[in-house]
Specification:
Layout lengths: L1 H32 L7 H10 L4 H52 L5 H8 L7
Length: about 130
């Protein structure tokens, strides 16, 4: 009877060790496969590793970095909108210039009226 119990204990220990090993490998694979939550993910991982941050502090760090990322995105979008509105007249002017080149130099004279209707929003040529 003792040998059966020993085999059961050995089987239990091997199964337990295999489960721990497989779980560790899967967790590491998942961690490496995760591309991160944004451009600061590598920075976050480096700080957590360098300063051996606890789970609570790592969570706080992620929250701070996500707020920082959101603020940078908001500022970038605001300035992009301002920049776009400043260059919009020049872009419109270039669009009109190239429309004239297409109309007058590329299209045959017989297609110009159709192109003019299309340019004014008259629907697709046809």
């Amino acid at each position: 009877m003792t040998s059966i119990r020993a085999w059961i204990v050995i089987l239990f220990a091997v199964t337990f060790a295999g489960g721990v090993g497989a779980g560790t490998l899967l967790a590491e694979r998942e961690r490496l496969a995760d591309p991160g939550w944004g451009p600061l993910a590598d920075y976050e991982r480096m700080l957590v590793r360098q300063f051996d941050l606890s789970a609570e502090r790592a969570h706080l760090l992620r929250s701070v970095l996500q707020h920082y990322d959101a603020d940078v995105t908001r500022i970038r979008n605001r300035h992009l909108a301002e920049y776009t509105s400043r260059i919009e007249p020049k872009l419109r002017e270039q669009g009109e210039r190239y429309d004239r080149i297409i109309r007058d130099a590329v299209l045959p004279a017989s297609a110009r009226a159709r192109f003019d209707r299309l340019s004014r929003g008259g629907g697709p040529p046809g």
